[in-house]
Amino acid sequence: xxxxxxxxxxxxxxxxxxxxxxxxxxxxxxxxxxxxxxxxxxxxxxxxxxxxxxxxxxxxxxxxxxxxxxxxxxxxxxxxxxxxxxxxxxxxxxxxxxxxxxxxxxxxxxxxxxxxxxxxxxxxxxxxxxxxxxxxxxxxxxxx
Length: 144
Known about the structure:
The protein is of the alpha+beta class and 144 residues long. It has a single domain (2-143), classed as Winged helix-like DNA-binding domain superfamily/Winged helix DNA-binding domain (Arc Repressor Mutant, subunit A). The chain contains 5 helices and 5 strands. It has helices at residues 20-62, 67-76, 83-95, 118-138, 140-143, and strands at 2-5, 8-11, 65-66, 99-106, 109-116. β4 and β5 form a beta hairpin. α1 crosses α4 and α2 (67-76) packs across α3 (83-95). The protein is flat and about 65 Å long. It starts with a strand and ends with a helix.
């Protein structure tokens, strides 16, 4: 049987206890572990989201992108982002003037596409310089 409370999930059979107090203590411990894991993932996502934006802008400067396509592309680079993260990110980048929305038929389906604007290309150019500088600083011992 699977128990589900507070967004966490655990197998009741795997909790070897003989009374309600022990069961409750093990459940609380499993929930705390889940919350800590989710909290760590959220902190990491906040750290990497700027890199994700640069990745999106890089691809949108090469050719128009669409949500599912960029989710798959980011996945190939180890980012595990879903539509609930990527679509608001694309809309935010459009609102900032870095992307322009359009539409195209992709694999027989009409897709909302995004292409880098002139402002987006300028921002990307500046970001590349800063990423190069950061890279050189982070890996200066290995580059020498």
